[in-house]
Amino acid sequence: MENNIHENVLEVRDLQTRFRVQKRVVNAVNGVTFELKRGKILGIVGESGCGKSVTAHSILQLLPKVGHIENGSITYYPREGEAKVLTDYGPKSREIKKIRGKDISMIFQDPMTTLNPVYTIGSQIVENLRKHEKITKAEAKERTIELLRKLGIPNPEIRFNEYPHQFSGGMKQRVMIAIAMVCNPEILIADEPTTALDVTIQAQILGLMRSLQEEHGTSIVMITHNMGIVAQMCDDVAVMYMGRVVEFGSLKQIFTEPKHPYTRALLRSVPVLGMGKDDELETIEGSTPDASTVFEGCEFAERCTQARPECFKRFPKDTTYEDGHKVRCILFEENENG
Known about the structure:
Strand order of the largest sheet: 6-7-8-3-9-10-12-11
Helix content: 25-40%
Strand content: 15-25%
Order of helices and strands: EEEHEEHEHHHHHEHEHEEHHEE
Distance between the termini: 35 Å
Protein backbone atom coordinates (compact mmCIF):
# COMPACT_ATOMS: atom_id res chain seq x y z
CA MET A 1 0.00 0.00 0.00
CA GLU A 2 3.06 2.26 0.35
CA ASN A 3 2.76 3.37 -3.28
CA ASN A 4 -0.73 4.78 -2.63
CA ILE A 5 0.49 7.28 -0.02
CA HIS A 6 0.00 10.82 -1.33
CA GLU A 7 3.25 12.72 -2.01
CA ASN A 8 1.93 15.82 -0.21
CA VAL A 9 0.70 15.59 3.36
CA LEU A 10 -1.01 19.01 3.18
CA GLU A 11 -2.34 21.11 0.31
CA VAL A 12 -3.60 24.67 0.73
CA ARG A 13 -5.48 26.09 -2.25
CA ASP A 14 -6.58 29.73 -2.68
CA LEU A 15 -7.00 30.25 1.08
CA GLN A 16 -8.68 33.53 2.00
CA THR A 17 -9.02 34.53 5.64
CA ARG A 18 -10.73 37.77 6.67
CA PHE A 19 -11.02 39.70 9.93
CA ARG A 20 -13.92 42.08 10.60
CA VAL A 21 -12.76 44.70 13.09
CA GLN A 22 -15.68 47.08 13.72
CA LYS A 23 -16.38 48.46 10.21
CA ARG A 24 -13.01 47.48 8.73
CA VAL A 25 -12.38 44.30 6.77
CA VAL A 26 -8.79 43.07 7.02
CA ASN A 27 -7.70 40.72 4.24
CA ALA A 28 -5.16 38.85 6.33
CA VAL A 29 -4.71 35.92 3.93
CA ASN A 30 -5.50 36.61 0.31
CA GLY A 31 -5.49 33.55 -1.94
CA VAL A 32 -2.60 31.54 -0.47
CA THR A 33 -1.62 28.31 -2.26
CA PHE A 34 1.17 25.91 -1.28
CA GLU A 35 1.84 22.24 -0.58
CA LEU A 36 3.78 20.50 2.19
CA LYS A 37 5.64 17.41 1.00
CA ARG A 38 5.52 14.34 3.22
CA GLY A 39 8.48 14.16 5.62
CA LYS A 40 9.84 17.57 4.53
CA ILE A 41 10.15 21.02 6.12
CA LEU A 42 8.41 23.97 4.47
CA GLY A 43 9.45 27.47 5.49
CA ILE A 44 6.86 30.25 5.31
CA VAL A 45 8.79 33.51 5.42
CA GLY A 46 8.07 37.23 5.25
CA GLU A 47 7.95 40.43 7.27
CA SER A 48 5.73 40.83 10.34
CA GLY A 49 2.09 41.28 9.36
CA CYS A 50 2.35 39.41 6.04
CA GLY A 51 -0.16 36.71 7.08
CA LYS A 52 2.20 33.84 8.05
CA SER A 53 0.69 33.17 11.49
CA VAL A 54 -2.89 33.67 10.29
CA THR A 55 -2.24 31.03 7.60
CA ALA A 56 -1.02 28.62 10.32
CA HIS A 57 -4.01 29.32 12.58
CA SER A 58 -6.37 28.88 9.63
CA ILE A 59 -5.07 25.33 9.02
CA LEU A 60 -6.11 24.29 12.55
CA GLN A 61 -9.21 26.57 12.68
CA LEU A 62 -7.73 28.49 15.63
CA LEU A 63 -8.86 31.93 14.49
CA PRO A 64 -10.27 34.55 16.89
CA LYS A 65 -14.01 35.28 16.80
CA VAL A 66 -13.56 38.20 14.40
CA GLY A 67 -11.75 35.97 11.87
CA HIS A 68 -13.14 33.47 9.39
CA ILE A 69 -12.06 31.50 6.33
CA GLU A 70 -13.95 33.04 3.44
CA ASN A 71 -12.73 30.87 0.58
CA GLY A 72 -10.32 28.13 -0.46
CA SER A 73 -9.53 24.63 0.76
CA ILE A 74 -7.06 22.96 3.12
CA THR A 75 -6.64 19.22 2.51
CA TYR A 76 -4.79 16.85 4.84
CA TYR A 77 -3.66 13.47 3.46
CA PRO A 78 -3.12 11.07 6.38
CA ARG A 79 -0.67 8.20 5.94
CA GLU A 80 -3.65 5.87 6.40
CA GLY A 81 -7.26 6.50 5.44
CA GLU A 82 -9.08 9.03 3.29
CA ALA A 83 -8.05 12.63 2.60
CA LYS A 84 -9.65 15.17 4.96
CA VAL A 85 -10.73 18.61 3.77
CA LEU A 86 -10.19 20.63 6.94
CA THR A 87 -12.11 23.63 5.62
CA ASP A 88 -15.26 21.47 5.59
CA TYR A 89 -15.15 21.28 9.40
CA GLY A 90 -16.22 23.99 11.81
CA PRO A 91 -13.71 25.26 14.41
CA LYS A 92 -15.60 23.49 17.22
CA SER A 93 -16.44 20.30 15.31
CA ARG A 94 -15.53 16.85 16.65
CA GLU A 95 -13.53 16.16 13.49
CA ILE A 96 -11.19 19.13 13.84
CA LYS A 97 -10.75 18.52 17.60
CA LYS A 98 -9.65 14.93 16.87
CA ILE A 99 -7.08 16.15 14.31
CA ARG A 100 -5.79 19.08 16.41
CA GLY A 101 -2.96 17.97 18.67
CA LYS A 102 -2.93 14.39 17.38
CA ASP A 103 -2.46 14.44 13.58
CA ILE A 104 -1.51 18.12 13.28
CA SER A 105 0.15 19.90 16.21
CA MET A 106 1.35 23.44 16.72
CA ILE A 107 4.22 25.04 18.64
CA PHE A 108 3.01 28.53 19.46
CA GLN A 109 5.10 31.68 19.35
CA ASP A 110 5.06 32.52 23.05
CA PRO A 111 5.23 29.70 25.65
CA MET A 112 4.74 32.31 28.40
CA THR A 113 1.13 32.84 27.35
CA THR A 114 0.40 29.32 26.05
CA LEU A 115 1.37 27.27 29.10
CA ASN A 116 -1.14 27.39 31.95
CA PRO A 117 0.63 28.79 35.05
CA VAL A 118 -1.59 26.94 37.57
CA TYR A 119 -0.95 23.41 36.24
CA THR A 120 2.26 21.41 36.41
CA ILE A 121 4.28 20.88 33.23
CA GLY A 122 3.68 17.13 33.40
CA SER A 123 -0.09 17.42 33.74
CA GLN A 124 -0.30 19.69 30.66
CA ILE A 125 1.60 17.19 28.49
CA VAL A 126 -0.32 14.20 29.88
CA GLU A 127 -3.64 15.97 29.20
CA ASN A 128 -2.88 16.24 25.47
CA LEU A 129 -1.76 12.61 25.32
CA ARG A 130 -4.79 11.18 27.14
CA LYS A 131 -7.20 13.32 25.12
CA HIS A 132 -6.15 11.48 21.96
CA GLU A 133 -4.99 8.04 23.12
CA LYS A 134 -6.62 5.44 25.36
CA ILE A 135 -3.86 4.91 27.90
CA THR A 136 -3.66 4.99 31.69
CA LYS A 137 -2.31 7.93 33.69
CA ALA A 138 0.75 5.88 34.65
CA GLU A 139 1.52 5.03 31.00
CA ALA A 140 1.01 8.67 29.98
CA LYS A 141 3.35 9.84 32.75
CA GLU A 142 6.02 7.33 31.70
CA ARG A 143 5.84 8.45 28.06
CA THR A 144 5.95 12.12 29.07
CA ILE A 145 9.02 11.68 31.27
CA GLU A 146 10.77 9.78 28.47
CA LEU A 147 9.98 12.57 25.99
CA LEU A 148 11.20 15.27 28.41
CA ARG A 149 14.44 13.29 28.79
CA LYS A 150 14.79 13.03 25.00
CA LEU A 151 14.28 16.81 24.72
CA GLY A 152 17.23 17.46 27.02
CA ILE A 153 15.32 18.47 30.17
CA PRO A 154 17.46 17.37 33.17
CA ASN A 155 15.84 15.40 36.03
CA PRO A 156 12.58 14.89 34.11
CA GLU A 157 10.99 12.89 36.97
CA ILE A 158 11.32 15.98 39.20
CA ARG A 159 10.58 18.60 36.50
CA PHE A 160 7.37 16.70 35.62
CA ASN A 161 5.82 18.02 38.87
CA GLU A 162 7.06 21.62 38.52
CA TYR A 163 5.23 24.70 37.22
CA PRO A 164 5.95 26.90 34.16
CA HIS A 165 7.42 29.74 36.28
CA GLN A 166 10.17 27.33 37.43
CA PHE A 167 11.39 26.87 33.83
CA SER A 168 13.66 29.14 31.76
CA GLY A 169 12.55 30.40 28.32
CA GLY A 170 14.48 27.67 26.52
CA MET A 171 13.08 24.96 28.80
CA LYS A 172 9.53 26.28 28.34
CA GLN A 173 9.98 26.03 24.59
CA ARG A 174 11.12 22.41 25.02
CA VAL A 175 7.92 21.76 26.98
CA MET A 176 5.89 23.29 24.12
CA ILE A 177 7.63 20.89 21.72
CA ALA A 178 6.82 18.01 24.10
CA ILE A 179 3.12 18.94 24.15
CA ALA A 180 3.13 19.16 20.34
CA MET A 181 5.11 15.95 19.74
CA VAL A 182 3.76 13.63 22.45
CA CYS A 183 1.18 12.08 20.07
CA ASN A 184 3.71 11.75 17.19
CA PRO A 185 1.74 14.02 14.80
CA GLU A 186 2.17 13.73 11.05
CA ILE A 187 2.36 17.55 10.72
CA LEU A 188 4.01 19.99 13.10
CA ILE A 189 3.38 23.72 12.64
CA ALA A 190 6.07 25.82 14.35
CA ASP A 191 5.11 29.50 14.61
CA GLU A 192 8.33 31.50 15.22
CA PRO A 193 9.48 28.83 17.72
CA THR A 194 12.76 30.56 18.66
CA THR A 195 11.79 34.26 18.67
CA ALA A 196 12.61 35.15 22.29
CA LEU A 197 15.59 32.79 22.69
CA ASP A 198 19.30 33.58 22.52
CA VAL A 199 21.24 32.10 19.60
CA THR A 200 22.71 29.15 21.57
CA ILE A 201 19.30 28.00 22.84
CA GLN A 202 17.81 28.73 19.39
CA ALA A 203 20.32 26.35 17.79
CA GLN A 204 19.49 23.65 20.36
CA ILE A 205 15.72 23.98 19.76
CA LEU A 206 16.13 23.83 15.98
CA GLY A 207 18.41 20.81 16.34
CA LEU A 208 15.79 19.08 18.51
CA MET A 209 13.07 19.74 15.93
CA ARG A 210 15.29 18.42 13.15
CA SER A 211 16.09 15.20 15.05
CA LEU A 212 12.41 14.62 15.93
CA GLN A 213 11.50 15.17 12.28
CA GLU A 214 14.12 12.68 11.09
CA GLU A 215 13.20 10.09 13.74
CA HIS A 216 9.43 10.17 13.19
CA GLY A 217 9.19 11.36 9.56
CA THR A 218 7.19 14.39 10.73
CA SER A 219 6.36 17.03 8.12
CA ILE A 220 6.99 20.56 9.45
CA VAL A 221 5.66 24.00 8.54
CA MET A 222 8.27 26.44 9.89
CA ILE A 223 6.95 30.00 10.16
CA THR A 224 9.69 32.60 10.54
CA HIS A 225 11.00 35.98 9.43
CA ASN A 226 14.57 34.71 9.83
CA MET A 227 16.15 33.70 6.50
CA GLY A 228 19.06 32.10 8.40
CA ILE A 229 16.67 29.60 10.01
CA VAL A 230 15.11 28.94 6.60
CA ALA A 231 18.55 28.21 5.10
CA GLN A 232 19.41 25.87 7.98
CA MET A 233 16.13 23.95 8.29
CA CYS A 234 13.92 24.00 5.22
CA ASP A 235 13.49 21.90 2.06
CA ASP A 236 10.96 24.23 0.39
CA VAL A 237 10.12 27.90 0.91
CA ALA A 238 6.97 30.00 0.48
CA VAL A 239 7.67 33.76 0.53
CA MET A 240 4.65 35.78 1.69
CA TYR A 241 3.82 39.45 1.29
CA MET A 242 0.54 41.16 2.20
CA GLY A 243 -1.37 37.89 2.60
CA ARG A 244 -0.16 36.31 -0.65
CA VAL A 245 2.54 33.80 -1.59
CA VAL A 246 4.66 35.80 -4.04
CA GLU A 247 7.24 33.06 -4.62
CA PHE A 248 7.41 29.31 -3.93
CA GLY A 249 10.26 26.91 -4.62
CA SER A 250 12.90 24.59 -3.24
CA LEU A 251 15.48 26.01 -0.84
CA LYS A 252 18.06 26.02 -3.64
CA GLN A 253 15.71 27.82 -6.06
CA ILE A 254 14.84 30.53 -3.55
CA PHE A 255 18.41 31.14 -2.35
CA THR A 256 20.33 30.79 -5.64
CA GLU A 257 17.69 31.83 -8.23
CA PRO A 258 15.30 34.21 -6.43
CA LYS A 259 12.94 35.80 -8.93
CA HIS A 260 10.48 38.06 -7.12
CA PRO A 261 11.89 41.54 -6.26
CA TYR A 262 10.62 41.09 -2.67
CA THR A 263 12.46 37.76 -2.24
CA ARG A 264 15.65 39.33 -3.59
CA ALA A 265 15.26 42.28 -1.23
CA LEU A 266 14.72 39.95 1.75
CA LEU A 267 17.89 38.01 0.91
CA ARG A 268 19.92 41.22 0.53
CA SER A 269 18.77 42.40 3.96
CA VAL A 270 20.29 39.49 5.93
CA PRO A 271 23.98 38.94 6.80
CA VAL A 272 25.82 36.09 5.05
CA LEU A 273 29.06 34.26 5.82
CA GLY A 274 32.13 35.95 4.34
CA MET A 275 30.60 39.41 4.52
CA GLY A 276 33.13 42.16 5.25
CA LYS A 277 32.68 44.33 8.36
CA ASP A 278 32.27 47.39 6.12
CA ASP A 279 29.62 45.74 3.91
CA GLU A 280 26.21 47.26 4.57
CA LEU A 281 22.96 45.34 4.61
CA GLU A 282 20.28 46.72 2.35
CA THR A 283 16.89 47.78 3.66
CA ILE A 284 13.58 47.40 1.86
CA GLU A 285 12.26 50.88 1.07
CA GLY A 286 9.04 51.97 2.78
CA SER A 287 6.97 49.91 5.22
CA THR A 288 4.39 47.15 4.96
CA PRO A 289 0.97 48.71 4.19
CA ASP A 290 -2.01 48.28 6.49
CA ALA A 291 -3.70 44.92 5.84
CA SER A 292 -7.06 46.62 5.17
CA THR A 293 -5.58 48.56 2.20
CA VAL A 294 -7.32 47.81 -1.12
CA PHE A 295 -4.93 47.59 -4.07
CA GLU A 296 -5.63 47.88 -7.78
CA GLY A 297 -2.31 46.31 -8.71
CA CYS A 298 0.62 44.49 -7.10
CA GLU A 299 0.84 45.05 -3.34
CA PHE A 300 4.62 45.37 -3.48
CA ALA A 301 4.71 47.88 -6.37
CA GLU A 302 5.16 50.99 -4.18
CA ARG A 303 8.28 49.51 -2.54
CA CYS A 304 9.64 47.78 -5.64
CA THR A 305 12.70 49.17 -7.46
CA GLN A 306 11.69 47.33 -10.67
CA ALA A 307 8.03 48.40 -10.77
CA ARG A 308 6.51 49.33 -14.13
CA PRO A 309 3.38 51.51 -14.62
CA GLU A 310 1.42 48.31 -15.33
CA CYS A 311 2.31 46.95 -11.86
CA PHE A 312 0.11 49.63 -10.24
CA LYS A 313 -2.88 48.87 -12.48
CA ARG A 314 -3.49 45.11 -12.28
CA PHE A 315 -2.72 42.06 -10.17
CA PRO A 316 0.10 39.84 -11.43
CA LYS A 317 -0.60 36.21 -12.35
CA ASP A 318 1.26 33.16 -11.04
CA THR A 319 4.00 31.93 -13.36
CA THR A 320 5.01 28.29 -12.87
CA TYR A 321 8.26 26.92 -14.30
CA GLU A 322 8.89 23.32 -15.32
CA ASP A 323 11.03 22.73 -12.21
CA GLY A 324 8.08 23.71 -9.96
CA HIS A 325 9.43 27.17 -9.13
CA LYS A 326 6.49 29.65 -8.91
CA VAL A 327 6.54 33.45 -8.92
CA ARG A 328 3.74 36.01 -8.81
CA CYS A 329 5.15 39.02 -10.68
CA ILE A 330 4.36 40.86 -13.94
CA LEU A 331 8.08 40.83 -14.82
CA PHE A 332 7.94 37.05 -15.32
CA GLU A 333 4.53 36.57 -16.96
CA GLU A 334 5.98 36.66 -20.47
CA ASN A 335 8.30 33.78 -19.51
CA GLU A 336 5.38 31.52 -18.54
CA ASN A 337 6.02 27.79 -18.90
CA GLY A 338 9.77 28.25 -18.41
